[in-house]
Write a structure and sequence with these properties.
heterodimer, A: Rossmann fold, GMP Synthetase, Chain A, domain 3, nine-stranded mixed β-sheet, five-stranded parallel β-sheet, globular, B: mainly alpha, 3 helices, 45% helix
Chain lengths: 572, 82
């Protein structure tokens, strides 16, 4: 299957692999070694300096259908204003500032402002409950949080456990009387313009963003990124998304997660591209109408959304003019072959799967515009990226199609630099000179990579990772739960959904109402993503003799697969 | 309690913060009050309460977008529900 795009930015993949050098990206970004490098400045001031200040940077459409457009010059002024506000509040460089907002314009202005100030931005998914917030903001000792009138009420529930959080800035407030305590209402569009703000002179290694991600054990970990990540995000957006000056680009990912920042902020705006943001979530008719109305040309979405669009069928597609689309990409979980074939048939374009992680900060393996797309394949490593599949001794497997541990050779520009306050776990991710991704894959005879599954217990639901431990910890607080184990169970739309096995305390009996109570309990504390969609009541959980829950056994039982070695299982 | 009141009470208790109001025609999905994952718990509540089973093909976001539509959906599977 060939992508129809001609004259792509990447040109020949093979040539790019052969001649790739980071110095080339430095030249494109006009960066000289040792000079200041601030993502906030690169995404606004630099673009204005290129004479593109009047170009539309952001087309924003509200849930109610109101459309607002912001130029790069407005982005520059509004991000300056947020930077100055935080500075006047006493926020210092390297301090952590959280953003807990729906997809509203101030999210983007404030993010760039935080980076200009030299503070570390901590994006929070707007569907997080108070406990999820508490764990993450408590872990990084966030000193300020920028939020909205709807979400501040959830933040208030977490506040008693967040002693470091000194400033709560609430945007888009229509009734200041509803604010409490020291909460501060702020409207950047009504504030005096800030023409000049000297961006913090960050270096390539200055921390920029803290993205929380879920691991097999323990609470979520904050993957720390640096301003130098822009090198990876700029060039991957240019070559993989193939963005050109007249494109209207739409990344559907929520900015509470890494995709919504790397490819919903840094990549496109460092290229001076116009991008669309829809406040509304997944509504097929609204999505298609937005593509038609705003003449979207490049669309970056996720397998879960694509599979839901497939379920909606072809008839709805015929009601809209989608002829502006010229390039489609996908990320979050493996894109099944049927989805690639369906998009080719219905949109006349294949979705190009991209593979990367919170820790990698940018696309690492992908299908390129102009290159043969093999439906179901992850594609090939990005030029300059050394990828491999390793055996159990962490040595590269040379035999084609033999599955192993997917690994990447450090360093690369957007690589995470640590898990916040957890050096030991960070170091455990590196073996024999390789970064171990936690995914399993195989490489075919032609160098295409194929995803084989996770190598750990992390649950991938709708393209987001959920830590079993976080779900189990929350459930321990439920009055009826004695102990529980969370696994991912296969799901046609979301790849996996959370399933929990629950042993009840004495005095409680399984019932449908109890199931619902457990679902809602987790949803409200953590997030809808972490909510168990299937609950199975059991008398006891399979454990090792040392008391560790054997999720592997539960997963095998759930999928009807062989249980494997259970010699370490505790006796009855 | 009438079906309309019961569903509204459940939505207020489970998906909204204090002071938020919801009516018969308030958009739940489009406005983000209930997302696609949370819809699963709303569907479970409806199924438990009215002793019905809603198949996946009928559980589209549009069918859960307002309390009025949810009531219609319940009546499709249990015409006697009140």
């Amino acid at each position: 299957m060939n992508s129809p795009n001609k004259g792509t930015n990447i040109g020949s993949y093979e040539e790019r692999v052969k001649d790739f050098a980071w110095e080339m990206i430095s030249q494109e970004l006009e960066y000289e070694e040792g000079a200041p490098l601030n993502i906030g400045w690169y995404c606004t001031d630099r673009i204005c300096g290129q004479g593109l200040g009047a170009k539309t940077a952001l087309i924003w459409e509200s849930t109610q259908g109101e459309v607002r457009k912001y130029t790069f010059d407005q982005m520059r002024l509004y991000s300056n204003a947020f930077a100055k506000l935080l500075q006047e509040l006493g926020v210092k460089d390297s301090e952590r500032v959280a953003i807990y907002l729906d997809r509203v314009p101030s999210l983007y202005f404030s993010l760039l402002g935080i980076l200009k100030l030299g503070a570390i931005a901590v994006p929070m998914f707007s569907a997080f409950g108070h406990e999820a917030l508490q764990v993450r903001l408590g872990n990084c000792d966030a000193v300020a949080c920028i939020t909205g009138p709807r979400l501040v009420r959830k933040l208030r529930k977490a506040m008693p456990e967040l002693p470091a959080l000194k400033h709560v800035i609430v945007v888009d407030v229509d009734n200041e009387g509803k604010l409490k305590g020291d909460e501060m209402a702020y409207s950047v569009e009504d504030a005096p313009p800030v023409e000049d703000f000297t961006a913090f002179p960050a270096t390539k290694e200055t921390p920029s963003l803290l993205h929380y991600t879920s691991g097999t054990t323990g609470q979520p970990k904050g993957a720390l990124h640096v301003h130098g990540s822009i090198f990876s995000q700029y060039i991957t957006t240019k070559w993989v998304m193939d963005l050109k000056p007249d494109d209207v680009y739409w990344c559907t990912a929520d900015p509470g997660w890494v995709t919504g920042i790397s490819y919903g902020v840094i990549g496109p705006w460092s290229l001076g591209a116009t991008q669309l943001v829809l406040e509304v979530g997944f509504i097929p008719a609204r999505w298609y109408a937005a593509i038609e109305k705003h003449r979207v040309t490049v669309w970056y979405s996720a397998p879960t959304a694509i599979r839901l669009l497939m379920r909606e069928g072809e008839e709805i597609v015929k009601q809209y003019d989608l002829s502006s689309l010229r390039h489609l990409c996908s990320v979050g979980e493996p894109l099944n072959p049927e989805a690639v074939i369906w998009s080719e048939k219905v949109y006349g374009l294949p979705f190009h799967d991209t593979w990367w992680q919170t820790e990698t900060g940018a696309i690492m393996i992908t299908n390129y515009p102009g290159m043969e797309v093999r439906p179901g394949s992850m594609g090939k490593p990005f030029p300059g990226t050394a990828a491999a599949v390793l055996d159990d001794r962490f040595e590269p497997i040379t035999e084609p199609n033999k599955p192993g541990k997917l690994a990447l050779k450090p360093p690369w520009a957007s690589m995470f630099r640590e898990y916040w306050g957890n050096r030991a776990i960070y170091e455990s991710k590196f073996k024999n000179g390789w970064y171990i991704t936690g995914d399993r894959a195989r490489i075919d005879e032609d160098g295409y990579y194929w995803f084989e599954g996770r190598d750990d217990d992390v649950i991938n639901t709708g393209g987001h990772l959920v830590a079993p431990f976080e779900v189990e910890s929350a459930l321990l607080e439920h009055e009826a739960v004695a102990e529980s184990a969370a696994i991912g169970t296969p799901d046609q739309v979301n790849m996996e959904v959370v399933k929990v096995y629950v042993a009840l305390k004495s005095g409680f009996e399984p019932s449908k109402d109890l199931e619902l109570s457990i679902m809602n309990f987790v949803r409200k504390r953590l997030s809808p993503l972490a909510m168990p969609q299937i609950i199975e009541f059991v008398d006891k959980l399979p454990k090792t003799r040392s008391g560790k829950i054997m999720r592997r056994v539960l997963r095998a039982m759930d999928r009807g697969e062989p249980i494997g070695d259970i010699s370490t299982l505790e006796d009855d | 309690m009438a079906m309309q009141d019961l569903i509204i009470e459940y939505i207020k208790d489970e998906y909204l913060e204090e002071d938020d109001e919801v009516g018969l025609d308030t958009s739940l999905i489009t406005s983000g009050i209930v997302d696609s994952f949370s819809m699963v718990s709303l569907k479970t509540f409806i199924e438990n309460k009215y002793d019905i089973s809603i198949p996946d093909e009928k559980a589209a976001p549009e069918a859960f977008d307002t309390v009025r539509k949810i009531i219609d959906l319940v009546h499709e599977f249990n015409p006697d529900a009140t």
